[in-house]
């Protein structure tokens, strides 16, 4: 069913595809609306008064294609606004007779009050609230508004993956908090944090993601069909909240919504198989059964845990998640309820997280429908004024980042020095001329005496170079002539051999002279880098 209103009317749409039209009955008695058409029955407790059905001023129609009834009811007071018509569970909850002042349930101890309708006292979110003392005779309490105890004693096998604290039934809230802080400090991974700080390729999509709820206005928020189905399945009850726990319930709401916003951002709006784990792990209330005494404590805990446990750990992203939380709260009860219903659905499908629904989420879904929008707006305004710095997280993040920056600067300086040295080497090599497999041939003895014919460059490297003098060529030719005339004349051979011997002596003198000339060149140009390898003169 759905409800809508104008200044003069309230329209009720009821989906009853298998109803018997001949058995349909509709009764309206001020704020009580009753619909019956076998096998359907609906009773609504409206926040305002309608004209009684006896006056027959109402209209009703049936849409056979949709299988739905549309009932239009007239308001007693024209222009009156009926709040909370979208809070379906609350509309189904009986309110009791308004003329009976005595409670039907007698409270023997504690200062209990009913839900927000009967309590208009102001909540102060800026000052630290004193948590109520725990009654140890009943065991240490936890859950929504500290309403449960001795739940985990029968859940030993499931406890390890449900909450992070051991034996919560026998530990007071202060001890739970102390253990939580110690475990968080031990679990903080400096390398993981620095990796997400300096290498943001993985988290960039989450940083740049803009959730759809930033484009919504409060009146544009709508339930999905699954949301409506879940609302109808919620228990129809009024919650009795200890007056000292009222602010604690609001703080716990911020803790849970922050966890949902983190998962929504890191999955860029798409739930994943680890979404339920993300929400439970980030919430100190859900994972450690912790309570909070002020908004600052909630923000510090949420941001701190977002830098310790999940996959993406970045302070900048945590601040964005905080802004997402503020935006959700600013959209009012309906948007907050949608987030809670989504968490409720996740936990129901993730063993054994359904127990957390029974301890927290189900009651939050019922309670949020009963509070006034003004209280939620005040909570939102208070949260906007809470600032958070890295120094307040207790993880020594500034010192860690300063040390990392020093190491990075040293590495950068060392790299710059290496690059400078490499550039100097390259620059030096740029002034070097390389001659490979080169032949410097002198034309005559005079040229040999002056040295090899070399390029005018000041830096010369000769690899596998050979200096060949003209005399060597002549000597080889004479030797060839000698070999060809050996058989014809021995005397001529002796003369030729004598001549060859003389020529060889001359060649040795020339080679000596050439070597001396090269040494002279090398000595005269100390910085010339003249290098001769595997040379034959």
From TrEMBL:
| Example GO biological process | box H/ACA snoRNP assembly
Q: List, as start-end ranges, the regions of compositional bias called Low complexity.
A: 511-523
Region described as Disordered: 468-537
Ranges for domain CS come to 1-86
InterPro entries hit by this protein? CS_dom, HSP20-like_chaperone, Shq1, SHQ1-like_CS, Shq1_C
What is this protein's record name? Protein SHQ1 homolog
Q: Where is the composition biased (Acidic residues)?
A: 473-510
Entry's family note: Belongs to the SHQ1 family.
**Got a GO cellular component term for this one?**
nucleoplasm
Listed GO MF terms: unfolded protein binding
Q: Which domain of life is it from?
A: Eukaryota
């Amino acid at each position: 069913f759905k409800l809508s209103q104008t200044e003069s009317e309230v329209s009720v749409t009821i989906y009853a595809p298998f109803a018997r039209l001949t058995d349909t009955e509709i009764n309206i008695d001020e704020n009580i609306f009753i619909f019956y058409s076998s096998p359907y029955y609906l009773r609504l407790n409206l926040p305002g008064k309608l004209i009684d059905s006896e006056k027959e001023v109402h209209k009703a129609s049936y849409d056979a294609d949709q299988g739905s009834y549309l009932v239009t009811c007239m308001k007693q007071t024209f222009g009156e606004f009926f709040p909370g018509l979208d809070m379906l569970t609350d509309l189904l909850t009986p309110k009791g007779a308004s003329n009976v002042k005595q409670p039907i349930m007698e409270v023997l101890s504690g200062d209990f009050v009913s839900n927000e309708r009967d309590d208009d006292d102001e909540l102060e979110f800026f000052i630290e609230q004193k948590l109520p003392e725990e009654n140890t005779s009943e065991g240490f309490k936890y859950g929504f508004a500290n309403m449960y105890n001795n739940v985990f004693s029968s859940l030993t096998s499931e406890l390890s993956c449900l909450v992070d604290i051991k034996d919560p039934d026998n530990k007071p809230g202060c001890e739970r908090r102390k253990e939580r802080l110690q475990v968080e400090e031990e679990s903080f991974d400096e390398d993981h944090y620095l990796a997400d700080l300096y290498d943001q390729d993985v988290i960039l999509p989450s940083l740049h993601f803009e959730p759809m709820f930033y484009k919504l206005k409060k009146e544009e928020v709508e339930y999905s069909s699954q949301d409506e189905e879940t609302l109808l399945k919620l228990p129809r009850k009024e919650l009795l909240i200890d007056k000292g726990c009222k602010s604690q319930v609001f703080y716990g709401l911020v803790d849970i919504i922050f966890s949902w916003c983190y998962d929504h951002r890191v999955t860029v709006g798409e739930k994943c198989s680890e979404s339920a784990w993300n929400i439970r792990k980030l919430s100190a209330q859900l994972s450690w059964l912790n309570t909070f005494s002020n908004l600052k404590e909630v923000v510090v805990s949420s941001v701190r845990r977002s830098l310790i446990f999940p996959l993406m750990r970045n302070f900048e992203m945590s601040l964005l998640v905080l802004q997402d939380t503020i935006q959700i709260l600013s959209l009012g009860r309906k948007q907050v309820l949608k987030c809670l219903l989504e968490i409720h659905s996740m936990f129901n499908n993730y063993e054994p997280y359904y127990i957390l629904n029974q301890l927290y989420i189900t009651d939050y879904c019922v309670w949020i429908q009963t509070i006034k929008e003004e209280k939620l707006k005040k909570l939102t305004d208070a949260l906007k004024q809470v600032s958070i710095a890295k120094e307040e997280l207790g993880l020594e993040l500034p010192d860690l980042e300063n040390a990392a920056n020093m190491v990075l600067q040293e590495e950068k300086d060392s790299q710059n020095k290496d690059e400078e040295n490499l550039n100097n080497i390259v620059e030096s090599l740029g002034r070097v001329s390389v001659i490979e497999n080169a032949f410097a041939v002198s034309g005559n003895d005079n040229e040999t005496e002056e040295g090899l014919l070399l390029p005018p460059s000041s830096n010369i490297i000769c690899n596998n170079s050979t200096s060949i003098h003209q005399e060597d060529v002549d000597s080889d030719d004479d030797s060839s002539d000698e070999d060809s005339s050996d058989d014809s004349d021995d005397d001529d051979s002796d003369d030729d051999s004598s001549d060859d011997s003389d020529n060889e002596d001359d060649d040795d003198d020339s080679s000596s002279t050439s070597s001396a000339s090269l040494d002279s060149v090398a000595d005269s140009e100390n910085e010339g880098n003249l290098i001769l390898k595997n040379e034959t003169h």
